[in-house]
Design a protein that fits this description.
The protein has 22 helices and 47 strands. Helix content is 32%, strand content 22%. Among the domains are: 115 residues, RNA polymerase Rpb1 funnel domain (Topoisomerase I, Chain A, domain 4, Orthogonal Bundle), CATH 1.10.132; 93 residues, no CATH class; 81 residues, Beta Barrel (OB fold (Dihydrolipoamide Acetyltransferase, E2P)), CATH 2.40.50; 143 residues, no CATH class; 119 residues, no CATH class. Strand 35 and strand 36 form a beta hairpin. The strands form 14 sheets. Strands 21, 22, 38, 39, 40, 41 and 43 form a 7-stranded antiparallel β-sheet that branches. The chain is α+β, with helices and mostly antiparallel strands. The site of zinc ion has 9 residues, from helix 9. This is DNA-directed RNA polymerase. GO terms for molecular function: DNA binding; DNA-directed RNA polymerase activity; metal ion binding. It is an enzyme of class 2 (transferase).
Length: 957
């Protein structure tokens, strides 16, 4: 490829022939090259000719799109299948409880994102290999119309969509426009499309307002004078973020003027002070130094907010020194504001399709064995996708040796692992080609581009929480099944009381054991105990809704004693107390309690109404009738084992008596909660699981396929294996769960909250708030990173080693650099190039003021906001006046004004009044008898004067 750096070996007479296709970038390079080499006139002629050639050939070519031009890569199906396999694996891991919801979601997004990128790359490879003159390919890659994102949507795969909140939907659009979308895909697309439209409508206004504010704060900045003679300047370096280079130094210094001469190692002059840096010089300088001291508008000494030509450097439109009179403030404001508007449109054109950044990966180049020569400090972490990795804290090296027949074939290959990388391999681990060795983490070292979110995980089914993995509860179930004495109550309360809630940080997971919840009204006495089996429509409890005593209590002596068991049905004729029952009625003993010699019976009739309640005294052989409560009782909707939740202290699960307070919760272990397998008497050979064991999804319990639902083994006999359905939930270190062991949850009730960090969706729509935050010096609510607190912190630091005056200057320089880097980071991450000098002009307006802390004898007031230059001047003036008193000088601290505030702080009032709050500013101006010296452009526009700007207006001094 031919480079368009002006080549000194070419001379004017040489005919130059570029035999290569010219895209937009190349044409612009050509014009640039011609401009810098042959000047304006020749370039205009060249452009004219280019235009004629372009029109003529475009007309004869007549490029248009046909449906056959949309060629789908043959490998697409393979890629999609591979992704689906990976996702299947992810799903299994999630079901097994090895991943949290967030991690599993993250993996889904990542897998589809990578697949979409792969398909996109394949599209380009296919076009380049088979069809270079394809109209789609030509249009997108010439830079004329369309971009790779649109091509991807046409012939690749549309990819992931964002929902209206900006969250990514984990259902990718696998089709492209050529294939056509399915109904579901179409509906999901609508979210993204609508978001695009709404964003465009809302954000154009926002970015337009940003431009307006920028213009207002910098409109009066005009180039005046040739040289302000300052020796000051700023250092420029490469801006990088982690291991990623954001803005190269060689790119940054082009068009700047050196503030200090640069010498090479052997003291030969490379570039001298006040020399402007061309592209060639820039590459020469960067060979010798990584830090260049250049003149800057930030340090220009020209007063009244003007700048000098040398401090500004090149006018970027002409690539030579800026002419005097240029309104560089407005140029700066527009240069920063315009890309905002542009990028807002870009979101619209891509139709809301998500394009996340794929993290940098270090993959093995061949099969081999990993080894490290020295240990690296770091710690084991769980990555956002649920992998366990080693987070390095220093730069380190990884070696990979190739192994064949136990011999080292080649010298090992050295991989550099930057600090804050995630290592996925261990010492002496064998790896295969293309295996990921490490990942350069993008957001662990950069604090401001990630946002914290949290997500609550809800239970799929109702059931009991179990933190304990060797639960004794179900061993009792087994014994009970075997003894078949189903009426024998089994108390769960002991287990619950002894198992205390485990600390979340210690336990990595918990299980929800399935059970159905039974609803009821206000109960008094339950007829069932923990562990009982109940049938459908069995009486569950006595409700005190209708409490009607029928008879007074009385006593009767009897001779014939009969006992009745709990649950036994009794014919009234057999009853000892037949006299008091109607004949031919069946009753059920529903409560039979025995204390000492007294048997207490509670009986209900067929209609489930309590009909009798009496006590039988064994010693006295007497029956004592108690108050008969004509109560309504409720019947069960479920069938199975009863489990009471230890919901409160008012309910005694042993006595089944409910006194007051919140209702107890009752659960029933129904058939729906159980899974069973026939073992055909071969339990030992075919079934490896043990009683009480938690079995995860996918485990082969008996021969055949793995189970499709995790569970716990509650019974294992010769013939049958019974498991209770259960689901594991992983508690990562960032999880928060307020449940304890033994708690019951209903279906869809919250189980735990996971907090996590996500990268911000990488588009300017998210970028604009960040730019605004910097330009407006807003407080950041989450972390104390507001510009003002930063500058204050730095000021305190500098005060320890410098004089106060120097400390202010130094901290101002520090914060200026911070803002510039921050703004450049946001724009560069969007692929937008903005020259530093534009940002510098704006930043200078924000940081030129200081706040008076103590006025001394200057006549200023505490809290006054004045120009830094002015504050220093006043202090210097005091030196001349009186040398003996030190305390007289004022003290001040650096502050950062947001652009809105800064523009309202300007000395005149007309410009401010035309910006916002007109009435307030005009009335204040009138009240304080303010004057306007009409120094800016706006003021003169308002009054209809000639503009005090424009080249040729001022004579250069
Ligand atoms: Zn200057």
């Amino acid at each position: 490829m031919y480079s368009f750096v002006p080549n000194s070996s070419l001379n004017h007479q040489d005919k130059i022939f570029f035999n290569l296709p010219f895209d937009k970038k190349k044409v612009s390079d050509l014009i640039n090259w011609s401009f810098s080499k042959y000047g304006e006139k020749k370039t205009v002629d060249l452009v004219e000719k280019l235009k004629s050639i372009g029109y003529s050939h475009a007309t004869s070519a007549g490029i248009s799109l046909g449906i056959d031009d949309l060629k789908i890569p043959a490998d697409k199906k393979v890629f999609v299948n591979e992704a689906e396999q990976q996702l299947n694996f992810t799903k299994q891991n999630f079901e097994k409880g090895h991943l949290t919801t967030i991690e599993s979601f993250g993996r889904v997004i990542d897998t589809w994102n990578k697949t979409s990128e792969r398909i996109k790359k394949q599209v380009i490879i296919d076009f380049k290999a088979f069809d270079v003159l394809n109209p789609v390919f030509m249009m997108a890659f010439s830079g004329a119309r369309g971009n790779i994102s649109q091509v991807r949507q046409l012939v690749g795969m549309r990819g992931l969509m964002s929902d209206p909140q900006g969250k990514i939907i984990d259902f990718p659009i696998q089709s492209n426009f050529r294939e056509g979308l399915t109904l579901t895909e179409y509906v999901i697309s609508c979210y993204g499309a609508r978001k695009g439209v709404v964003d465009t409508a809302l954000r154009t206004a926002t970015s337009g307002y940003l431009t307006r504010r920028l213009v207002d704060v910098a409109q009066h900045v005009i180039v005046r004078y040739f040289d302000c003679q300052t020796l000051d300047g700023i250092y420029l370096t490469t801006i990088s973020h982690g291991s990623k280079i954001i803005l190269k130094l060689s790119q940054r210094i082009v068009g700047r003027v050196l503030a200090k001469s640069i010498y090479s190692e052997n003291n030969t002059l490379i570039a001298y002070r006040n020399q402007d840096i061309t592209t060639e010089l820039a590459s020469k300088i960067t060979l010798h130094t990584s830090k260049v001291f250049v003149r800057s508008t930030l340090t220009c000494k020209v007063k009244k907010k003007y700048v000098c030509q040398l401090c500004y450097g090149w006018s970027l439109a002409q690539n030579h020194l800026v002419p005097s009179g240029e309104a560089v403030g407005i140029i700066a404001a527009q240069s920063i504001g315009e890309p905002g508007t542009q990028l807002t449109m870009r979101t619209f054109h891509t139709g809301g399709v998500f394009s996340g950044s794929v993290s940098e990966e270090i993959r093995a180049t061949h099969n081999g064995k990993v080894f490290f020569t020295n240990s690296t400090p770091g710690k084991l972490v769980r990555t956002a996708y649920g992998q366990i990795a080693f987070l390095t804290k220093q730069d380190s090296f990884l070696f990979l040796s190739q192994i064949t027949n136990n011999d080292l074939l080649n010298s090992p290959i050295k991989y550099q692992i930057p600090a804050y990388s995630l290592l996925f391999v261990k010492q002496n681990q064998l790896v295969i080609k293309q295996q990921i060795l490490a990942e350069v983490s993008t957001f662990l070292n950069g604090e401001n581009q990630s946002i914290s979110s949290s997500e609550t995980v809800y239970s799929d089914f109702s059931g009991m929480i179990s933190f304990s993995l060797n639960d004794t509860l179900h061993k009792k179930y087994q014994t009970k099944l075997e003894s078949k004495s189903q009426q024998k109550p089994i108390s769960e309360s002991k287990l619950i009381n002894t198992t205390k809630r485990k600390l979340i940080s210690n336990s990595s997971e918990f299980w929800v054991l399935s059970a159905q919840s039974e609803t009821f009204l206000k109960p008094v006495n339950f007829y069932c105990f923990n562990g009982d089996f109940i049938q459908y429509h069995a009486n569950l409890y006595k409700s005190n809704l209708k409490f009607v005593p029928e008879k007074k209590s009385f006593e009767k002596y009897v001779n014939n004693i009969q006992y009745y068991d709990y649950g036994q049905s009794v014919n009234s004729e057999q009853l000892i107390t037949e006299k008091y029952f109607r004949k031919n009625n069946y009753f059920s003993v529903i409560n039979h309690q025995k204390t000492d010699n007294i048997h207490d019976f509670l009986m209900v009739n067929n209609q489930h109404c309590v009909s009798n309640h009496f006590q039988f005294d064994y010693e006295k052989s007497s029956i004592k009738y108690k108050q008969i409560e004509k109560l309504k009782s409720d019947s069960s909707q479920l069938q199975g084992e009863v489990i009471f939740a230890k919901s409160n202290n008012f309910f005694n699960t042993d006595l089944n008596q409910y006194t007051k307070g919140p209702l107890p919760k009752m659960y029933v272990l129904t058939d729906a909660d159980l899974m069973s397998w026939d073992l055909n008497g071969q339990s030992n050979q075919s079934c490896k699981v043990k009683l009480g064991q938690y079995v995860r999804y996918g485990t082969k319990v008996i021969k055949g396929n793995g189970i499709t639902q995790s569970g716990i083994v509650i019974s294992k006999t010769k013939d049958k294996l019974v498991m209770r359905k259960a689901k594991p939930f992983l508690l990562a270190s960032n999880g928060d769960c307020s449940l304890s062991h033994g708690d019951f949850v209903n279906s869809q009730s919250p189980l735990l909250t996971l907090s996590y960090k996500t990268l911000k969706n990488d588009d300017i729509v998210q970028g604009i708030p960040k730019i605004e935050q910097l330009f407006e010096a807003r407080e950041n609510m989450k972390n104390d990173h507001s510009l003002n607190s930063l500058v204050k912190k730095q000021f305190e630091l500098y005060k320890e080693s410098y004089t106060k005056q120097d400390a202010v200057r130094k901290s101002v320089k520090y914060i200026q650099q911070y803002i510039i880097d921050g703004i450049q980071y946001v724009y560069q991450s969007q692929g937008v190039n903005i020259s530093d000098k534009h940002v510098e002009i704006i930043v200078k307006q924000m940081t030129s003021k200081v706040k008076i802390i103590s006025p001394g004898n200057t006549g200023l007031f505490t809290g006054d906001i004045v120009d830094l230059d002015w504050a220093e001047l006043v202090n210097r003036a005091l030196d001349y006046e009186n040398n003996d008193n030190e305390n007289k000088k004022s003290e001040y601290e650096p502050i950062v004004l947001g652009i809105t505030k800064a523009s309202l702080e300007t000395e005149g009032f007309l410009s401010a009044a035309s910006f916002q709050e007109t009435i307030k500013i005009l009335s204040q101006a009138a009240y304080f008898k303010k004057r306007d010296f009409l120094r800016g452009l706006k003021e003169n526009v308002i009054l209809g004067h000639l503009l005090p700007a424009g080249t040729g207006l001022f004579s250069t001094t």
